[in-house]
Design goal:
Layout (H helix, E strand, L loop, with lengths): L2 E8 L20 E2 L3 E2 L1 H10 L4 E5 L5 H7 L13 E5 L3 E2 L2 E2 L5 H7 L1 H7 L1 E8 L2 E3 L3 H10 L4 E7 L9 E5 L5 E6 L8 E10 H12 L8 H11 L4 E5 L4 E3 L3 H12 L25 E2 L4 E3 L2 E2 L4 E2 L2 E3 L2 E2 L4 E2 L4 E3 L2 E2 L4 E2 L4 E3 L1 E3 L4 E2 L4 E3 L5 E3 L4 E2 L7
Parallel strand pairs: 1-4, 1-8, 4-5, 10-14, 16-19, 17-20, 18-21, 19-22, 20-23, 21-24, 22-25, 23-26, 24-27, 25-28, 26-29, 27-30, 28-31
Antiparallel strand pairs: 2-3, 6-7, 8-13, 9-15, 10-13, 11-12
GO molecular function: ATP binding; glucose-1-phosphate adenylyltransferase activity
Function: Involved in the biosynthesis of ADP-glucose, a building block required for the elongation reactions to produce glycogen. Catalyzes the reaction between ATP and alpha-D-glucose 1-phosphate (G1P) to produce pyrophosphate and ADP-Glc.
EC number: 2.7.7.27
Length: 380
């Protein structure tokens, strides 16, 4: 059955800037907002936009991500004519198939894409927090008779040098692309979201890899190639909440914003739900000594301490005398007695022993995935 638009989510990033938090899991699988993982927002956008077939390209430490996504049932993507397919590197008679870049990852999965037979391919990142109607982007792509559409968002001009910048004419046709320019000409930053006419992109990739194999990355190679070839390349302007949570600071900041009930993302909007695969845990329990203010507390939590403007993910334990403020505690973490935690991210399944002090006043403090602080564990 022909697919009008197939989504390909690039979710293989190692996330080195998140340090200890991605030691054992890929960046898109990092917990976020108490109940979610980062990739949930992109998958939910696909489901809400009516995209029924999604390929998820993984590479680095994919186990947790694969288990989380499963067959896509949590996002309603497990029907007869819909589904989520995990696409991992593989070996063949030609040798290793490790993905060298974004475009190379799509090239290596041409067989899967051809099987789905799409007219358009939507290329997405699995590590951004946002809501977007991809159907609206597709309609704009068609109206522009575009060969490639690039989603862009206005960023502060002082930060524009951190992004790929799209210079456009009065009709939003892209006439120049600058990769992290020192002196940007405008503030239209690429969001790493692309709609390609599949027939054209397929030809470009096949021709490249039959010759020099230079089409490795969309930003560095494919987009400049399209512009040089005179293709119709258009910007799709997005206005709304969008966060690249690729650093400790941005991940902490996005979580803190997530706490506020009137935040722009509007997580409580029933017309555009954010879905996730959730664990089955008992209701959270607050003891007589617990004090919780302006915080998000998820199922399975046991709280006997003081929580201020923080997020406790599922199955977190906080014992008596402990004070947690302006912090994120990821699933399964155990916090001992009389602990002081301020401006910190506590990783999944971490253990913080009694009387520990974790202070991120000057720089966001991080306890890593399954890291043990201030306690000696019996090896047996």
């Amino acid at each position: 059955m022909k697919t009008e638009m197939l989504a390909m989510i690039l979710a293989g990033g190692q996330g080195t800037r998140l340090g200890k938090l991605t030691k054992n899991i890929a960046k898109p699988a990092v917990p976020f907002g108490g109940r979610y993982r980062i990739i949930d927002f992109t998958l939910s956008n696909c489901a809400n936009s009516g995209i029924r077939n999604v390929g998820v390209v993984t590479q680095y430490q994919p186990l947790a991500l694969n288990n989380h996504i499963g067959n896509g049932a949590s996002w309603g993507l497990d029907g007869i004519n819909s589904g989520v397919t995990i696409l991992q590197p593989f070996s063949s008679s030609e040798g290793s198939k490790w993905f060298e870049g974004t475009a190379h990852a799509i090239y290596q999965n041409i067989a899967y894409i051809d099987q789905m037979d799409p007219q358009y391919v939507l290329v997405l990142s699995g590590d951004h927090i946002y809501k977007m109607d991809y159907e609206d982007m597709l309609e704009t792509h068609k109206a522009n008779n575009a060969s490639l559409s690039v989603a862009v968002i206005e960023v502060p001009i002082k930060e524009a040098s951190r992004f790929g910048i799209m210079n456009t004419d009065e009709n939003d046709r892209i006439i120049e692309f600058e990769e992290k320019p020192e002196e940007p000409k405008n503030n239209l930053a690429s969001m790493g979201i692309y709609i390609f006419n599949w027939g054209r992109l397929r030809n470009v990739l096949m021709n490249s890899y039959s010759k020099d194999g230079q089409m490795i990355d969309f930003g560095k190679h494919v987009i400049p190639n399209y512009l040089e070839s005179g293709e119709n390349v258009f910007a799709y302007r997005f206005s709304g909440y969008w966060k690249d949570v690729g650093t400790i600071d941005s991940l902490w900041e996005a979580n803190m914003e997530f706490i506020e009930p009137d935040m722009e993302l509007d997580i409580r909007d029933k017309s555009w739900r954010v879905f996730s695969k959730n664990t089955i845990s008992p209701p959270h329990f607050l003891t007589q000594t617990a004090a919780v203010k302006n915080s998000l507390i998820v199922d399975g939590c046991y709280v006997s301490g003081e929580i201020n403007h923080s997020i406790l993910s599922d199955d977190v334990q906080v014992k008596e005398g402990t004070v947690i403020s302006d912090s994120v505690v990821m699933p399964g973490a155990t916090i001992g007695k009389n602990v002081k935690i301020h401006r910190a991210i506590i990783g999944e399944n971490a253990i913080v022993g009694d009387d520990a002090v974790i202070d991120g006043s000057e720089e966001i403090a991080v306890v890593g995935y399954s890291e043990v602080i201030g306690v000696t564990l019996d090896e047996n």
